[in-house]
Design goal:
Layout (H helix, E strand, L loop, with lengths): L1 E4 L4 H8 L7 E3 L17 H16 L3 E10 L6 E2 L12 H11 L7 E12 L2 E13 L15 E3 L11 H7 L1 H15 L1
Parallel strand pairs: 1-2, 1-3
Antiparallel strand pairs: 3-4, 3-5, 5-6, 6-7
Helix pairs in contact: 4-5
Length: about 190
């Protein structure tokens, strides 16, 4: 089975492909000739995931799924949330984003946060969504070199290490995207 994953982020493709059974192959946007920026202008994580999946289905007519992920920090009233990728500006720079979060939390004792991923999938004429949440805390500084995005400053509950200090297999097992992908795989295995 082949299905389009509506992303050009090689880190996401690697992370998700590692969780899929051998009979499911991901096709990237590049593979289908989609070079334009897929819109994500909604004000919720779920809305963005659906918008991206709808775009590929409407313009390319292929079964596909798209995800959107946000880091929701309690002390920042849920920010950066849907704006996680561009929190520090339109340049979408992970270091700038982490530096801004760390600066905003500098004098705050409350550091609880959660990562939320929503996957929206068009499959055989239906639109289905899957959600994964991973709770944790924001560290006081960046730790680790693996992963991407906010991984160096997010320590999942029950762990001493940040996502950037965990193996890909461990992150997939406990992480937000991994939880959503498990639900997606379970659905595909039944259909």
């Amino acid at each position: 089975m082949k299905i389009v994953f509506a992303t050009n982020n090689p880190n996401k493709i690697k992370e998700v492909q590692a969780q899929l059974p051998e009979h499911i192959t991901l096709i990237s946007l590049e593979d289908i000739g989609c070079t334009e920026a897929v819109p994500e202008t909604q004000d919720t994580i779920k809305g963005n995931a659906i918008q991206k999946a709808d775009y590929i289905k409407d313009h390319y007519g292929m079964d596909c799924f798209a995800d959107d992920t946000g880091l929701e920090i309690t002390a920042l009233n849920g920010a950066p949330g849907v704006y996680s990728a561009r929190y520090a500006g339109p340049q979408r720079n992970a270091d700038d984003n982490m530096n801004l979060v760390l600066a905003e939390l500098n004098q705050k004792a409350e550091r609880s946060a959660q990562f939320k991923t929503v996957i929206a999938m068009h499959f055989r004429g239906e639109l289905i969504t899957f959600e994964g949440i991973c709770e944790g805390k924001i560290t006081k500084n960046k730790r680790g070199t693996d992963g991407f995005g906010y991984d160096p400053i997010f320590k999942p509950s029950g762990y001493k290490n940040t996502f950037a200090e965990l193996s890909l297999a461990e992150k997939n097992r406990i992480g937000h995207r991994g939880k959503a992908v498990k639900k997606l795989v379970a659905y595909l295995n039944l259909h």
